[in-house]
Amino acid sequence: MVCKSSLTKIFKEVTMSDKFKEAAQNLCDDERTIALKERLDYVDATESGIIKQILGREGKPLSNKQKFIYQTKIEPTLVEKCGIQGCEKFVPAGTGYCDSCQIEYVE
Ligand SMILES: [Zn+2]
Asked: How many Å lie between the centroid of ligand 1 and the Cα of residue 102?
């Protein structure tokens, strides 16, 4: 039984990060650029190198290792939950609130 409950826990964590990943993949280019720039301040040197390469004008493709780091470490952090409690929407990192909460609660 112990095994079963720990599996459930792992499954929940996976589902959670999958939601973030899915939301991050749904960002449009502008939103992704905003989020990537926002993340630059918080990531380590390897990750910031990857972000700069993505944002760069050369369009140099990422190596497989860089892609792996991007998909596992950077992409899920490009979105965050809307800052209004109870709101389930995702927003680009650094944005704070989703559009409807922004109108309803913030302005
Ligand atoms: Zn919201």
From this structure: 7
Cα-to-centroid distance, 84 and ligand 1 (Å)? 6
The rounded Å distance from CA 92 to ligand 1 centre is 12
What confidence tens digit (pLDDT) does each residue in 19-66 have?
888 999 999 999 999 999 999 999 999 999 999 999 998 878 999 999
Q: Nearest Cα to 39, choosing from 30, 28, 27, 47?
A: 47
The answer to whether the CB of 91 falls within 8 A of the CB of 80 is yes
Cα-to-centroid distance, 100 and ligand 1 (Å):
6
CA-to-CA distance for 83 and 100, rounded, in angstroms? 12
Q: What is the spatial distance between Cα 23 and Cα 32, in angstroms, rounded to a whole number?
A: 11
> Angle formed by the axes of helices 45-55 and 29-39, to 10°?
150
Side chain identity, residue 44:
D
Structure confidence by residue, pLDDT tens digits, 72-94: 999 999 999 999 999 999 999 99
